[in-house]
Design brief:
By secondary structure, this protein is an alpha+beta fold. It folds into 3 domains: about 180 residues, FAD/NAD(P)-binding domain (3-Layer(bba) Sandwich); about 180 residues, D-Amino Acid Oxidase, Chain A, domain 2 (2-Layer Sandwich), CATH 3.30.9.10; about 50 residues, no CATH class. Helix content is about 25%, strand content about 25%. It has 11 helices and 19 strands. Strand 12 and strand 13 form a beta hairpin. The longest helix has 17 residues. It is globular, with a radius of gyration of 22 Å. The protein binds flavin-adenine dinucleotide. The site of flavin-adenine dinucleotide has 39 residues, from helix 1, strand 8 and strand 15.
Length: about 450
């Protein structure tokens, strides 16, 4: 065991994606002393590999899932108000072709319902005839085009929102977060758990105790819990999605485009960050899922879809700036585990032992509602009063480098500040998640004009 003295926390959270970071914030604001542990950087897995949309999910209307859509739209509009530096609203176009399964009137009805469920907080939808649609999306295939529905959703820096939730929670005294630390053993105590933790940089092993142990480990949950002797039967249906960042001039469009492919998949084309984000595929996962990468055949699939819908644009491998992948942590519908069964079928909270909670499923957009449900359960068990409105306050610590809009010129002083105040441990943490750069990091010798050699000494741990 290492030199660190054993500390006691009310709650230890394992997994620092959006759900872990959001939960730490909610618990900390409500007075629960909480430690968050992640085996990599915070928000370095699924929560930085999403399609980066804050959305109600127009597709779920087809499943008559109005409750989920309404909740997600409320959350989308909340974050658009609370964190305008991390997200913005933009128009989405849904083109309809002669072969599309929906008639224009059906689409228009769906779009009306979408605005209605947002309490008309969404900017209003519209229907564009083929000619007007092509003016907005000049690269789109015109053959058989009937027109396009227009509606509004949010674009978010997914990694940054999770990080800023974490920073906000850590402002409250007595809370802590450790990246690049792995939980290697859990021992059940009479009133909680002892958790053995390994520092993945130094190899040091130390222990802390807690009253409640919570897993927000997303797609990693099914493999992790049995290793830690937590009673658990697999609950996930993993599905992999990849994205491409394309050069900005590849496709000419004024807004985002939602394509429903002939094999009935949905591919988004979303201009942002001086680039165009394209995704996603849905494939079975056959590989290691930590730091998962896009495979050649998945990239080819997306390029083929693009070539089909934008036949006059020149889209090929050279159009790609970088790629990324993630695994959807979808929860199985039917469950034999101790499902608390309190919410929609899209996320689930389990209590495998009296002092353990597990939360999986759901979507990024609704993380605050999901973590609220869990915090509401835990906080009173700690003898504290839960106040649901605290998470409606603005986040208090913003990242030094904004993602959208005009970026300030990066200086070495700013890099120093980012490293010391934003829990940066590696160059990848800095480039990918604090500076929100999309370029591949391979072979980079400067970062936004600063030589890598000047930054490396600042990262010495
Ligand atoms: C392709 C794709 C597109 C999506 N698009 C959208 C979208 O546009 N909008 C939307 O609302 N939702 C979207 N989602 C869903 C959304 O991304 C997820 O619901 C959300 O990010 C899940 O967050 P999480 O915190 O549960 O998991 P994660 O972000 O994966 O966090 C789990 C954390 O656990 C850590 N961990 C794993 N093992 C250990 C261990 N042994 N010890 C310590 N830590 C560990 C990992 O490092 C990781 O940081 C998308 C998902 C995918 C896959």
């Amino acid at each position: 065991m290492g030199k660190q003295t054993m500390k006691h926390y009310d709650v230890i959270i394992v997994g620092g994606g959006i759900n872990g970071c959001g939960l730490l914030r909610d618990l900390a604001l409500n007075g629960a002393k909480t430690l968050l542990i992640d085996k990599g950087d915070f928000s370095s897995q699924t929560s930085q590999g999403s399609s980066k949309m804050l959305h109600g999910g127009i597709r779920y209307l087809e499943n008559l899932d109005f409750g989920l859509v309404k909740e997600a739209l409320e959350e989308k509009n909340l974050w658009l108000r609370l964190t305008p530096h991390l997200c913005f609203e933009r128009e989405f176009y849904l083109p309809l072709y002669r072969y599309s399964k929906h008639a224009p009137w059906m689409l228009q009805f769906g779009l009306y319902l979408y605005d209605f469920l947002s309490h008309f907080q969404n900017k209003p939808h519209a229907w564009l005839g083929a000619e007007d649609a092509l003016k907005k999306m000049p690269s789109l295939d015109s053959k058989g085009l009937k027109g396009a529905g227009k509606y509004f959703d949010g674009i978010v820096d997914d990694a940054k929102l999770a990080l800023e939730c974490l920073y906000d929670g850590l402002i409250e005294e007595g809370n802590e977060a450790l990246s690049y630390h792995e939980v290697i053993k859990t021992t059940q105590l009479q009133n909680g758990y002892q958790v053995d933790i390994k520092d993945l940089f130094t190899g040091e092993i130390f222990s802390n105790t807690c009253e409640f142990l919570v897993f927000t480990t997303g797609p990693f949950t099914d493999t992790l819990l049995p290793k830690l002797n937590i009673p658990w039967t697999p609950q996930l249906v993993p599905s992999k999605g990849i994205h491409l960042w394309l050069k900005p001039d590849t496709i000419k469009t004024e807004g985002s485009i939602v394509l429903t492919t002939k094999d009935n998949r949905v591919v988004f084309v979303i201009p942002q960050r001086d680039s165009i984000l394209v995704g996603t595929t849905e494939t079975q996962v056959c590989e290691e899922i930590f730091n998962i990468q896009a495979q050649e055949k998945e990239i080819t699939y997306l390029l083929n879809v693009l070539q089909q819908y934008f036949p006059h644009a020149s889209i090929n491998r050279d159009s790609i700036i970088s790629t990324f992948a993630a695994v959807r942590p979808l929860a199985k519908e039917e469950s034999s585990n101790q499902n608390l069964g309190k919410v929609s079928r899209h996320h689930k909270i389990y209590r495998p032992t009296s002092h353990t909670y597990v939360m999986i499923g759901g979507k990024y957009t609704t993380f605050r509602r999901m973590t609220q449900e869990l915090a509401q359960e835990i906080v009173p068990r700690l003898g504290l009063r839960y106040k649901p409105n605290l998470t409606l306050n603005p986040l208090r610590q913003h990242s030094v480098m904004p993602t959208f809009g005009k970026k300030p010129e990066l200086s070495l002083e700013m890099v120093k500040k980012i490293i010391t105040t934003e829990r940066v441990k590696t160059m990848e943490d800095l480039i990918r998640r604090r500076l929100s750069m999309i370029e591949s990091t391979e072979g980079l010798d400067t970062i936004m004009g600063i030589p890598l050699e000047d930054i490396k000494p600042l990262l010495k741990r």
